[in-house]
TrEMBL record:
Belongs to the archaeal-type GPI family. The lineage of its organism: Bacteria, Bacillati, Bacillota, Bacilli, Bacillales. It comes from Cohnella cellulosilytica. This is glucose-6-phosphate isomerase. Keywords: Gluconeogenesis, Glycolysis, Isomerase, Metal-binding. Its EC number is 5.3.1.9.
Amino acid sequence: MTTQANNGNAGHPLAPFSHYFSLNNGLSDTAPSLKRYLSKMAGMYADDAAFRERLQREDTLVYEFHELGVPEAAGNLAFGTSIVYPGKIGDEYFMTKGHFHTILDTSEVYYCIGGKGLMLMENPEGEWDVREFSPGTAVYVPGRYAHRSINTGHEPLITFYVFRADAGHDYGTIETKGFRKIVVEQDGRPAAIDNPKWK
Ligand SMILES: O=P(O)(O)OC[C@H]1O[C@H](O)[C@H](O)[C@@H](O)[C@@H]1O
Ligand SMILES: [Fe+2]
């Protein structure tokens, strides 16, 4: 049985609820997913020519995620699944936009259900890291770290995430500066290299 989140009364405790996500494709059949198509990611990939060429052919679905609308109140947790599809723009793997949390100090956990990939992370102090996703691996994204999921495999990368519901998403910093590193295929393997566009 699946019951929906009670979206009202921010600041009041939610009633208990449960929700279904498929272990096969990460999707829920009881709530719509938010879909991010390639056209929403202009300027984010290093190879602008490859981006334009792909977009002319098709506005590909790069990733989608379930967001249940848990009120952004202190004490609540937001959770759901995220599915990044396999593909590349030039040599750079399909990925999420990535974001800092508006409340910079708030962390997040991702648990990989399917596929293969990396979590790319960096903080304002310039420290960065990549952690591998494979089914069964949980990745802890500490507070202060911007984070981007990257699919380095040939199947959808499916993760389940949980974070403080009032954390907020800061996309502007990544949209204007980018991540310090990008992940590209080199000699058939993923490699984190300096982002030529990083400002
Ligand atoms: O927000 P993006 O960087 O586009 O990534 C998409 C989504 O990925 C994960 O599922 C996060 O937990 C969500 O909070 C996020 O919105
Ligand atoms: Fe996040």
